[in-house]
Amino acid sequence: MSLINKVITSAYSRRYKQFDRMETDGPAIQAAQLDYLIGKGTKTKIGRDWGLRPGMSYADFNRLVPVGDYETFRPYAERMLAGESDVTWPGRVRWFAKSSGTSGSKSKYIPVTDTVLANCHMRGNHDVIATYFRQHPDNNVWRGKCLTLGGSKKLTAEGSGVQTGDLSAIMIGNAPLWSDLFRAPKKDIALIANWEEKLEKITKATVGTNITSLAGVPSWFLVLLKYIMAKQGAKTIQDVWPNLELFIHGGINFAPYREQYKELAPGGINFLETYNASEGFFALQTDAADPGLMLMLDYGVFFEFVPLDEVGQPHPAGIVPLEGVVPGVDYAMVITTNGGLWRYMIGDTVRFTQTKPWKIVISGRTKLYINAFGEELMISNAEAAMAKACQETGAIVKEYTAAPVFMNQQTRGCHEWLVEFSKRPEDVDAFGEALDKALQSVNSDYEAKRYKDITLAPLRLVVAKKNLFEGWLAAHDKMGGQNKVPRLRNDRSLIDELLEMNT
Hints:
By secondary structure, this protein is of the alpha/beta class. 37% of the residues lie in helices and 22% in strands. The strands form 4 sheets. It has an 11-stranded mixed beta sheet, sandwiched between helices. Strands 2-1-5-4 form a 4-stranded mixed beta sheet. Strands 18-19-20 form a 3-stranded mixed beta sheet, with helices on both faces. Helix 11 (218-232) packs parallel to helix 12 (255-264).
């Protein structure tokens, strides 16, 4: 190990001890987080509305504070956007992360307090580096720069004096000046709104730079890397950046992309997954050999978990804090944060792979599923089946979405899959059959509905034309960053629009 690596690892030694404590003392750490949050909440309008008081028990907190989503939170957000102080967190909120989410078109304004920015979002980024040094003490990432690919919209100044925009723009705007020594491209390029212009300028700014790591969403980074390779006439991305060794990724399931990245970087590349969103930084991969993400329990976030059959209830009977979770069960995740969110249902569903340490995988979305016929198809099922079908047929899928075809008096129902291939299978019908069988193998409810084609007919596969999904994102002003087309919808509004564009 080099001297600099020893110094950096030593600097992180205290944090490593805190990591170890999170693996064993999670409930105690979470109880302390809740006490802290309630203490802050007593000084706010929302705290007075719900009767928060210092030192109150979790049982009272559970009884008094309702579980809600953005629509529950919206009236408070509007007051903060208007410049009012002490609404859901002490003081005035200066930044709001603007997001349309993955299951709706209405804008959401998520408060980004000074506290959540420093103690959650920024701390998560530091812990990613600490984790990588722990996993790979002889790494060389510090010798070069990290190429980040974030949102594509600059902050907008509102009349109330607050600023709204992508979380990545907020973080870039608040990053210390010295961070430019380790990050590329510079701020003015990182925040370009036009996707084509951004690709070109990132290429010019980074080719010839010693890029040792990447950080961003896999689907968008794939577009960027292929663009750069084409511009440079390179066969691999390591022909462009020979010292590239790490890809920090998140935002979507990585399984369909892993092999493509290995092909782009045949010299070897390490992967580290994170779970962060506009609402907070929640978990990261602390063991390269384990796909489970360890919940980060000391960022000022209190976690709760709701059984899926109780989603939508303001006081779900089955809601549990960390100590009540059961591995293998899908839960909707609820958060209370130092960003001023209170019992906020983020929309993600998670499944614990283990406890002590508490590790999760993201199993889907509370509104990202297909359950038109009682099949309860979750996004985790779809991703696993898609990966299996690709493995069996040699196909590589770039993007896809699926929705039900509803039954009528003459026909049975089925699922319709619109798939854009990076590498088209030799036999598209065989791919569809493999996907259908794989879905049955990973979801017993779907298998039961497909039994002898009595309830559900075989899935219907439609091949999408090149760049169809990018075209849809461009049409909806969602190019770049963490924007993505929803994989599953329980209605046909999205797929019908895409099918119309596919003609």
